[in-house]
Write a structure and sequence with these properties.
2 copies of one chain form a homodimer. Chain A is α/β, with parallel strands linked by helices. In chain A, 45% of the residues lie in helices and 11% in strands. Chain A is globular, with a radius of gyration of 20 Å.
Amino acid sequence: MYPKTIRKLIEIFSKFPGIGQKTATRFVFYLLKQKKEDIEEFSKFLKDLKEKVKFCKFCFKPFEGEKQLCEICQNPARDLTKICIVEKEQDLEAIENAQIFNGLYFVLGGPISSISKEELEKLRVKELFERIKSPEKFGVFGNFKEIILALNPTVTGEAISIYLEKKLKKLGKKITRLGKGLPSGGELEYADEETLKSAFEGRK
Amino acid sequence: MYPKTIRKLIEIFSKFPGIGQKTATRFVFYLLKQKKEDIEEFSKFLKDLKEKVKFCKFCFKPFEGEKQLCEICQNPARDLTKICIVEKEQDLEAIENAQIFNGLYFVLGGPISSISKEELEKLRVKELFERIKSPEKFGVFGNFKEIILALNPTVTGEAISIYLEKKLKKLGKKITRLGKGLPSGGELEYADEETLKSAFEGRK
């Protein structure tokens, strides 16, 4: 039987998304072969993840710092008339890296695997409404004229978009969706910059 | 851009065997969603990995405790006339779990991907000879009559077996290899107990 520390770490890694017992074991033996300093650094950054990384009060993007708002929501150069709704942090990152959008974001939470009631309740729908209606309550002096639904072009993503669109209509704002360019069935996170660009331009 | 802690963790996970940037990112966001206590525990076990886990002075199996020898090498009930040479810790674990062998082990080190000079030098061949010739120098009062080469039945494993067999012959001991039962091209670590059992019985 493996010593306790190894067993515990295999157990922890086995719970990682897509990782089974065998791969978890490989991870532990890989780590066992690394330098002590590297493991200590790893261990430190893990602790920092819960101690230093916060979620933006407005958009829920993870960030580090003293303030309550992330660097995007704090930036006076951003266009405060547009808000782009994404499923998860990686999607926001993909759009930011493509440098094609200058408004604000909102991370809905996810990934969600189905559109059951339980799964939908995991999404920050109530929070989204509060922020669009009264952004100043969350430290952002926005006046949103356009809401961009940038969810994944998957069955679930489309369903959530329809659901949100219905609810958001009451607010009387322009609602757009990422259009041309995104291959159907794909994942926003994996789209290249050109595809993202034409999707942004082709929004309707 | 992700905050520093997230970037650093993505970088660390990207170096894990078989893990790319995207999977590494998923791991970090998975962790970000876990409870603080769970992350602290993970961080603690990681530190323990380098602080508590030692390698047995004789066989190089990882273990925890005050002694210099692992629980197998310390066990007076083990058969000190047989030594089984395995590539890596997981292989030793698979044989132990099958409860089919009562002798001692030696972890050669690995996995190695080719039989180049550089790769062969990573293996503990010198250490193996020292332990077979004078086990008492390493705290084990063994008198080995049989050396079992339990390497993976892969091209590399077979090549290492031939290489070791040639070198070990000079010691005048009986040298056996795991025989019948192991599917050619497979990995010892994944063999079920029955397969391992017939491989042990069919050794020649």
